[in-house]
Amino acid sequence: MRRIAVLVLLAGVLAAGCKRKHHPNPSATIEEESELASSISVAEPRDASQLLSGFYNLEQNAWRWSMKKFAVTLAPPLNGALRGATLELHCSLPDVIAAKMLGVSVTPTVGNVKLAPVRIDKAGDQVLKFDVPIEPLKQDAIVVQFELDKAIGPDSADSRELGLVVSHIGFVSK
């Protein structure tokens, strides 16, 4: 009898521990079903299904060029629907394009909420931070779109439209 009571108690504890909110990745296929993350690295194969549009192939196993417009899907951060969050874009403005791209403004839209733009005034690595209100963080899967006010057009040296070098995108809880 004591053994049954212990098993029932253990089953209750395990069931309570499994109440973590599940955020399935809507972009994943049945074969690669994965959990939707609130923060992604563009170099991680498990995060690739969260890159929706506007990214080129992975380079140096660490980063991707973006286009003028690019988008990802993210899960909301812990307590985001109660406190809001900060959206971080880890990117770089390489010296080779800095002369043409300095002063570029980056404007994200989270869900249907357009955020204040951030201007890039120096070359090199950047962490752009955007304040995100509570409202768009109430969804299980949030589309985050970025738009640059300028990009490098295709030319004879490179047939791609080049925006920023992106390595990481994610929400940070407040």
From TrEMBL:
Superkingdom of origin: Bacteria
Official protein name in the record: Lipoprotein
Organism: Paludibaculum fermentans
